[in-house]
């Protein structure tokens, strides 16, 4: 057995906001991917993955059957036979390792599944997102379902609001462009669930809620609009604001040793940093109008370009 490949994703904008009601924009990142496979010779990695699937299968069997029903008998038999998720997607790096896994399992075991080949109306997309949100909650505590959706469809997804999502095109990349979006490897593994929990706790405070509504969501939405329009000038203005807000209000999600680097970008304007997914480690997402300048300022770090302006 070797299932189809599912890609990692990069949530360019919308982390945390999309759990509430902000816009979000997520693109597939084919550099990393994963597929369900049967073990030949067991290794530490494949055994660990198989055990993780076993725990997850028990959860999948408890999901409301009105939403989605899985072929649990086949799933359990495959797990007993040594199935694992053969994936290059780093876990806890904010690029959707659990999302790709969720997409692969839905694809293989969901009954009456919505397939990528049919006409994906807004209703069908929303239904898929609801199913994925429920499936991924096992890993996240609370999940928007966007990661698996992106992985399942392998196309950019625009979230306009909680119940208004669509497949979208993004402006084509300029291979000779000076600007870039890039990843910085923090070298630390993050965990989504505790970060989402901190966010949900903070949301119980009125001051934090107001900041999310009046500042965080406002700039997130503006960034999404600018990116899709290709308005690079306005995009950098709004990304700078977003970077500032995140530094001030999402400190637990930024590894301590990156606080200074984050601030330096805001002061020099050489680059702006933002969270990549839930944060707490993993990748940090960078935006630079002049990538050569950013590279110099960040020479001590390993950068991976994901988009050129
Ligand atoms: N290859 C894999 N095999 C089994 N489980 C996996 C695999 N990759 C990811 N997972 C599951 O997904 C979890 C990571 O998901 P999460 O914390 O949401 O991080 P990410 O940002 O990478 O999606 C892991 O703890 C594990 O339970
Ligand atoms: C924080 C959040 O908005 C994005 C999390 O992404 P990741 O699991 O860190 O890739 C949670 C979600 O939308 O499921």
From TrEMBL:
<dbReference type="Pfam" id="PF00288">
    <property type="entry name" value="GHMP_kinases_N"/>
</dbReference>
<dbReference type="InterPro" id="IPR001174">
    <property type="entry name" value="HddA/FKP"/>
</dbReference>
<dbReference type="InterPro" id="IPR006204">
    <property type="entry name" value="GHMP_kinase_N_dom"/>
</dbReference>
<dbReference type="GO" id="GO:0004496">
    <property type="term" value="F:mevalonate kinase activity"/>
</dbReference>
<dbReference type="InterPro" id="IPR020568">
    <property type="entry name" value="Ribosomal_Su5_D2-typ_SF"/>
</dbReference>
<dbReference type="GO" id="GO:0005524">
    <property type="term" value="F:ATP binding"/>
</dbReference>
<keyword id="KW-0547">Nucleotide-binding</keyword>
<keyword id="KW-0067">ATP-binding</keyword>
<dbReference type="InterPro" id="IPR014721">
    <property type="entry name" value="Ribsml_uS5_D2-typ_fold_subgr"/>
</dbReference>
<keyword id="KW-0418">Kinase</keyword>
<protein>
    <submittedName>
        <fullName>Mevalonate kinase</fullName>
        <ecNumber>2.7.1.36</ecNumber>
    </submittedName>
</protein>
<feature type="domain" description="GHMP kinase N-terminal">
    <location>
        <begin position="82"/>
        <end position="147"/>
    </location>
</feature>
<dbReference type="InterPro" id="IPR036554">
    <property type="entry name" value="GHMP_kinase_C_sf"/>
</dbReference>
<keyword id="KW-0808">Transferase</keyword>
